[in-house]
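Structure first, sequence second, as always.
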């Protein structure tokens, strides 16, 4: 296992600065997920750690050694790409062992590593097959196995599940989590899928426009988002936002909707109140009223959209109650689970 240290890292591509003065510590044995929208720089950052893209400034340290200018083969990393990139004329065994054979690894050692990786990834019965005889999930497992046989200190994953259907993504997500538990290796994983990030990560790095917005455990970034971007990016449905005014007495007003919050430090000011749909509770006798705008059945739950006082809020309902668009409903907000943001700086307050 190895740790990774990034210090004041800057990366420019085509004259555009993609990564800007970024610092990040990845601890040994951690499963760190780089999460963000397309174009935020997460894959570029991963490729720089791998040595596939040169940094214009700053440093990359792996396992206590400065690897900023080292070749990819010298960095002790194993990488899995979005594309399987398997050789179609080679068997699974040959695809997995190709890099070892090129490097002159002894045959007995190659066999040991292949059998170990095949056992972990349930590829034993498939070693004699060629990629055309495999499903998409099996091909991606081969690509992961090809990285594992290197027995690297750090494994890098660049959106490895994005080409798979929903069922296969769920299965391989579980296998990756179990694999990390077995190996205890340092893993850095890039995705734009928040479900992958929340289920796989020991810590999540949320990125936007080449900068880190927040680093924390899945629970931390979900329950206490550092800013409006993080709050809105994580969660499905997304967090409800109400733009209004916070009074010195702790009252928050948005249109005709009024909430009682904690007294405001620093006096009255404009604010944005955010609350997750699961903390909007529909029920008789609740203090707020509104009208059902839309109902989205989701199988084991339903999303009910409520219009109230000029605000449109989503609520998660985990029972079989029936809601009709246009019907009046009573609801309440678990204000203690909400978040307040500064509408100008967009930071949590």
């Amino acid at each position: 296992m190895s740790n990774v240290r990034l210090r004041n890292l800057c990366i420019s591509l085509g004259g555009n600065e993609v990564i800007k003065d970024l610092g990040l510590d990845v601890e040994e044995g951690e499963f760190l997920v780089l999460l963000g929208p397309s174009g935020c720089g997460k894959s570029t950052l991963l490729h720089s750690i791998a040595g596939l893209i040169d940094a214009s400034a700053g440093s990359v340290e792996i396992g206590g050694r400065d690897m900023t200018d080292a070749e990819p083969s010298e960095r002790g990393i194993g990488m899995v790409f979005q594309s399987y990139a398997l050789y179609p004329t080679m068997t699974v065994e040959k695809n997995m062992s190709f890099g070892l054979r090129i490097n002159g690894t002894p045959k007995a050692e190659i066999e040991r590593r292949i059998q170990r990786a095949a056992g972990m990834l349930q590829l034993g019965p498939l070693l004699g097959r060629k990629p055309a005889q495999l499903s998409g999930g099996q091909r991606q497992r081969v690509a992961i196995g090809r990285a594992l046989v290197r027995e690297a200190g750090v494994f890098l994953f660049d959106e490895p599940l994005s080409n798979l259907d929903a069922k296969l993504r769920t299965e391989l997500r579980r296998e990756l989590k179990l694999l990390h538990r077995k190996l205890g290796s340092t893993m850095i994983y890039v995705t734009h899928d928040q479900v992958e990030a929340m289920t796989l990560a020991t810590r999540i790095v949320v990125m936007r426009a080449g900068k880190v917005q927040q680093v924390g455990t899945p629970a931390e970034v979900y329950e206490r988002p550092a800013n409006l971007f993080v709050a809105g990016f994580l969660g499905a449905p997304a967090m409800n936002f109400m733009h209004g005014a916070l009074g010195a007495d702790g009252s928050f007003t948005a249109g005709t909707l009024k909430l009682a919050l904690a007294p405001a430090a620093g006096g009255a000011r404009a604010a944005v109140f955010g609350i997750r749909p699961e903390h909007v509770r529909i029920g008789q006798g609740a203090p707020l009223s509104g009208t059902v705008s839309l109902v989205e059945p989701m199988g084991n739950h339903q999303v009910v959209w409520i219009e109230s006082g000029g605000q449109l809020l989503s609520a998660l309902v985990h029972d079989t109650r029936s809601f009709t668009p246009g019907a009046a409903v009573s609801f309440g907000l678990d204000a203690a689970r909400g978040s307040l943001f500064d509408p100008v700086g967009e930071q949590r307050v």
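Margin note: The chain has a mean pLDDT of 92.
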